[in-house]
Amino acid sequence: MYFVDVILPIPVENAFTYRISETEYAFIKPGMRLAVPFGKSKIYTALAISVHQIEPRIYEAKEIEQILDETPVVNLAQLNFWKWMAQYYMCTLGDVMRAALPRAFLLESESIIKRISKTPIEPHLDAIDEDGLAILNAFEGNSILRISEVMQVLNKKKVLPSINKLIDLDLVALDQEIYEAYKPKLVKYVRLAPAYNEEEKMHEALDELSRAPKQRELLLNYFTQTARSPKPIKAKELQEQSEASSAQLKALVEKGIFEIYKIQKDRINYSGKEDSPIKTLNENQEQALGEIKTSCQNHDVCLLHGVTASGKTEVYVNLIKEYLAEGKQVLYLLPEIALTTQLVARLQEYFGNQLSVYHSKYSVHERVEVWNNVLHHESKAQLVLGARSALFLPFENLGLVVVDEEHESSYKQYDPAPRYQARDAAIVLAHQQNAKVLLGSATPALETFYNASIGKYGLVTMNKRFGNVLMPENSIIDIQEKHRKKRMTGHFSDDLLRAITDTLELGEQVILFQNRRGYSPIVECNTCGHAPQCPNCDVSLTYHRHRGQLRCHYCGYHIAMLQKCMACGSEELDTKGFGTEQVETELKELYPEHNIGRMDSDTTRGKHGFEKIITAFEQGEIDILVGTQMLTKGLDFRNVTLVGILNADSMLNIPDFRAHERSFQLIQQVSGRAGRTAKRGRVLIQSFNPHHQILQQVSMNAYEAMYHEQLEERHIYKYPPFCRLIKITMKHRDFQKIEEASVWMGQALKNVFRDQVLGPEPPPVSRIRNEYYRNILIKIPRKQSLEKTKKAILKVRTTFSSISQFRSVKIVLNVDNY
Ligand code: ADP
Ligand code: ZN
Ligand code: ZN
């Protein structure tokens, strides 16, 4: 008898064994997908990990449905990496598999498919088999179908290959992510309106503009340019040349003299000039590159600590070139998609089609394509740029992993399992493949800098900005005093307003940072003090003025904004605190002639949300950009000279051992967006607590002072890097039950780990979506075996789960939960 062990994409502890025939035994290789029955009627896509002849002892092995691949789609190196991840982050291989494989690889009976009506069937008729046609017919009258329904229609279980074929032909899509063509970035261009194409009219227009000199200059510049070359003229460039504002350009459009049109700038299939010469590195960059290479001889990991705009990206590019030239694969990790928009364009200039991009906002299709290109060592996937999930691509020959902005908290996946830290996992992945890791940041994570200080990682420093542009000039504004002296207009101090006005007058751009979205986080009754709460969560509802709603940021619950207090009926409702929306509203009143943009998770929904805003800002269509921490992520805007932080205190007061470190990083990073190219930038930080040591350190760009002070605190209070943390979160809908269960768990853990256990404690928001939360934190000293600790925790969990009244309590294990 022959058997295959498989991983199922569900959280079950063990691999499952299925029966196979002798021929199948000879054919199946680890890493191939199989369709297998599971439970009473489910079909899953499973991944073969080994074939053997040992019959399972405790259950009778079922037969597989069928083999889905001709050759493996997952390689052995990946399986190895998955095993490490499951073991280290205390989850199952199925959890890792689910995170790792593109959704399109994981058809299961509950999956829903949709017909893509845009794609006609006719051209593909030859490629569609009978089953395929039957499936397409089944869509008549149904917009969606479950795979299990397809099984009924075809009256058989082996339907996945036919569905896969239809997906490949773009006729059908998985519902989770309907295939959407990659919309390229739109760039605005100007041309003369047809009516003005005659000489005579041209003169008329110029006369007409005699009293609007800037507009006249725009027009003259336009003529000069068209006379010089027939190339389309970018709105933004024309505006810059004429030192005009976007409003002045707009006026010409409104007068019917200019027309704005858009040209697509394709990003995914790069057709521009390939292999632009790499920028020549300056002396500092050259030196850094040399030092990195030397460091790579003794260290597997090197930290490049370079101030914002020191030109780290160009250093990465040069290093990447060398690895690619050796025929190695390179992975370039980014914390978030917000960044890729700019970086893709930058990297494509150097690497052309050698570059592939991989992240969760890409469609199933695009992702499968990149996956296969990496798997088959295609030249177009030698360099992959991606968010954390790119770690799971089928690399076999990695030479280098670059982790850009390595301090970013979005490298950590919080939910669902695997709850991995992509930077840390990248180091393990690189180690498994004998590759090197380059971590880059202007504000390294404390743990990283610690590892570099003790010599575990190499350390290379760049402390000058490219072109010797000075670091921005920081000032802290005491808004308590400004309030007292009545020098505040809304949330703006007189100093900040003056700076904004000056900047706009010079035709330069402004970034304003407020770490909260919405209009205001609390609505309070002036009469009785009642504040509306979410019925499902323990938080107050945030007022979103634009939508006229009160919304919960945890569960999405929303109601229309109240006219009266729910408790006492008073009409005197007051808002407390403020978010980006309120800043935007105030700005629009203060600067009605200027364009204000907002970047937060409310305005960047959808695949191209970020891109639209970033492009508009780059093109000068937005003068002031207001945003949350999305603004901090390494964006490179050339014309921003002022950054304002509206309220630094809210970040500093978050109850978390990293709050101070994170505030430093956030403020330093937004500040880093100012004055990146020629002129020195200015940063104004408003705070009620201007003497806070973190603000002082930020304003002096004193990373190391911050580092030493924070490290000392971590030492005293026993936090990473001096110990490891494992957080256990328990959830249940019943308050009484969660109390009992968490106390039991806390006690059981204390019996083993004594005072290394903190909690159980309710988190700051202790009820979300009607579930009550309790946290227990285990601090593990460096010298204590992590292996044994985890074993002991799992043992306690097993005992816990065997207690019948606790069975319904959910437990989440989070290793390195920060
Ligand atoms: P960092 O990643 O350190 O914040 P960047 O790599 O974005 O800095 O560089 C900052 C700016 O300086 C960018 O606009 C970049 O184009 C420019 N720059 C960096 N290095 C060079 C170089 N060698 N030649 C020309 N421009 C450069
Ligand atoms: Zn009231
Ligand atoms: Zn809620």
TrEMBL record:
Residues binding Zn(2+) 1, per UniProt: C525, C528, C565, C568
Transmembrane regions listed in the UniProt entry: none
Family: Belongs to the helicase family. PriA subfamily.
Cofactor(s) for this UniProt protein: Zn(2+)
Lineage of the species this protein comes from: Bacteria, Pseudomonadati, Bacteroidota, Flavobacteriia, Flavobacteriales
HAMAP family in the cross-refs: PriA
Name under which the protein is recorded: Replication restart protein PriA
GO molecular function: 3'-5' DNA helicase activity; ATP binding; ATP hydrolysis activity; DNA binding; zinc ion binding
Record note on quaternary structure: Component of the replication restart primosome.
Coiled coil, from the record: none
Gene name per UniProt: priA
This enzyme's EC code(s): 5.6.2.4
Keyword Hydrolase attached: yes
Binding site for Zn(2+) 2: C534, C537, C552, C555
Catalytic activity: Couples ATP hydrolysis with the unwinding of duplex DNA by translocating in the 3'-5' direction; ATP + H2O = ADP + phosphate + H(+)
